[in-house]
Fold this protein.
Amino acid sequence: MVLATVLLVAAWVYGYLKVGTDAAPLVNEVLPGVARVEENGDLLIARDEAGNVAGYAAVGEAPGYGGPITVLVGVDPAGTITGVRVVTQRETPGFFRLIRQSGLLADYDQQTVRDPLLLGQDLDAVSGATTSAEGVANAVRTAVREIAATGLNEPRPPEPKSLQIGVPELVLVLLFAAGYVGHRLRNGAWKRRVRWEALLSGMIMLGFVYTAPLTITMIISLLSGYWPDWHNNLYWYLLIGGILFVTTVDSKNPYCYWFCPFGAVQECLSAVSGAKPYRPRRLRQTLTWVQRGLAVIAIAMGLALRRPGVAGYEPFATLFDLRGTAVEWIFLALILVVSLAIYRPFCHYLCPLDPVVDFVAAGRRWGKELVSQWRRQRTSA
Amino acid sequence: MAQTKNERVKQGLLLAFVIVSVVLVGLIWADGLVEDVPATPSYYRGAADDGQGRAVTAVVPAGDTPTPAAAATPHRPGERPQEDAQDGDEPLILPSLDDDDA
């Protein structure tokens, strides 16, 4: 545990020092006729050979699914957007593939700094990659606001932020409540019934309807400091915060065996085939360390590269969104087939979240032990 | 003896499953890292040739207080765009754009 902590801290420090991109050399990719670029605070002024102003550019940043998305936007002196380039992004490759294929950036053709530039309004939404698309759109609006205010002297008022609470958030709260109540039921039959109803609800709603299970990408984003805007990402805070809170306070995992959608799918297959848990004593230690090793490597990679999206390997999107590479489909198929022979094979041998929850629980025990020792010392003194 | 043999086969299959899964996870990571191609602009607005081999859109004449071209949005009275480079900033000179690869 100490070694893993040291490794993860080192990865975090490395990622923190390494991150950063100079956007000025990229200006000619979003503005035509650029011969040189002057930096004026956050505004980049592009000039042509004769020294005339060919346009303005600025960098905008906004949270995506895996972390901040940075874009460079070019605007001509008339206020029309001439180009949009994604400079850095930390999204899961599948999500960003969708963005590139959707032509979202092409929607900015002929848009101006005076347009709303809102998804679903003058820009088409991107199905299956909503958070990533919103990140791109918000980043572009941030850059456009900078150009409008400091380059064109047309400051745009900041968009009012309103808290968005919808069905996903309510479903999540209800599932947490079901887990909390279910854990405390003494009647075994009722406990099983509540657990199955929560599992199936989680599978359908969090899995197939919203495709929003807990992933290691979210944990790495949390550790990297890439926290999304809570006004329109309350679900993210409820899911991570709820699990960490209950695990820390109650020493119980409210998620994995109560409403994890992928766990529910495996459990359904195991229920159909009658598969039982299988943890041979000879291999238990080895398998535990393999699972922990995968989690530590994933988190270290995500922190060092500051790309949470790349570190995730759970086949959730492949199953619930029917979207993945050939390797991801093979991985999913293997897990589903083995689920017919062994109870929850992904959860027991491969899931990176189990070691994270174990780590939090171990930290809680360690903290309790420290507090007890301190109290004993005070009492004896 | 049969049970022991069965148990060994099951353990072997379990190990094989875990090893194959670890390899697949490694391939998933490698896929994700290789796909590290920043999205080159899927949008770059075409522009007219100004007759000297340069692509331009709207251009503001050079001067002490540059103002946009007449067709552009008018400034508010008394306001000037802040276009002077800060002291000590070296303007970045970019190569010629005769070959437009957008």
Summary: The radius of gyration of chain A is 24 Å. Residues 144 and 281 of chain A are 60 Å apart (CA to CA). Chain A touches chain B through 88 residues (CB under 8 Å). The first helix of chain A runs from residue 2 to 18.
